[in-house]
Amino acid sequence: MSSLHSPKQNHLLAALPTAEFDSLAAHLELVSLSLGAMLYEPDEQLQHAYFPTTAIMSLHYVLASGASAEAAGVGNEGMVGISLFMGGNTTPSSAVAGIAGHAYRLERHKLLQEFNRGGSLQRLLLRYTQALMTQMGQTAACNRHHSIEQQLCRWLMAALDRVPSHELVVTQELIANMLGVRREGITEAAGKLQRGGLIRYRRGHIAVLDRVGLESRACECYAVIKKEWS
């Protein structure tokens, strides 16, 4: 493990008692995830669970028509691969790096071994699954009832909560794909936020200049989802 990275940058791993953390630590492998990196595809058997530290993963659904949308984002608050301990080895969604960074991966047999002990890891992962389900439900309602600008503000705020910087390396096209809207809609919404002095956008980079102002433009979904992580 690199001195620049620690599994305890992930909140689930950091919350484990020392004995349980030590049991996992030797089996955790640090991986670097580039923007757009695919961890798994729909109906593919999962081999690892991933605990992001600086990367943000998008749990993404793609329809037969090619249209797609994000069901949830996973950053340092959680893990990718809940199907491994919820009774299945596959998932209908894909997992894509929406923000590049790092994660620790754990082989599925070791995850199940520790989960089935019934200790703190099991309790933490089940509680996390409840929070993830809340995020998915709230995201579905948000995508149906709130404006693109509100959705963009929600997404940006959620991303900021998971990274140490006020600047995000992400394209408008990728955000549009994750929100399931046209790129033109994101361009228009980002333009309004930039003219309002809330963000600064240049190709592939979004810097948040006024976090308080950005949060005031987000819908209530941001606060509902954030409460679940607390």
Automatic annotation (TrEMBL):
Keyword annotations of the record: DNA-binding, Transcription, Transcription regulation
One Gene Ontology cellular component: cytosol
Xref: InterPro entries: cNMP-bd_dom_sf, Env_Response_Regulators, HTH_CRP, RmlC-like_jellyroll, WH-like_DNA-bd_sf, WH_DNA-bd_sf
One MF annotation (Gene Ontology) recorded for this entry: DNA-binding transcription factor activity
Record has tRNA processing as a keyword: no
Residue ranges constituting the HTH crp-type domain according to the UniProt record: 146-212
Name listed for the protein in its UniProt record: Crp/Fnr family transcriptional regulator
Organism in which the protein naturally occurs: Rhodoferax sediminis
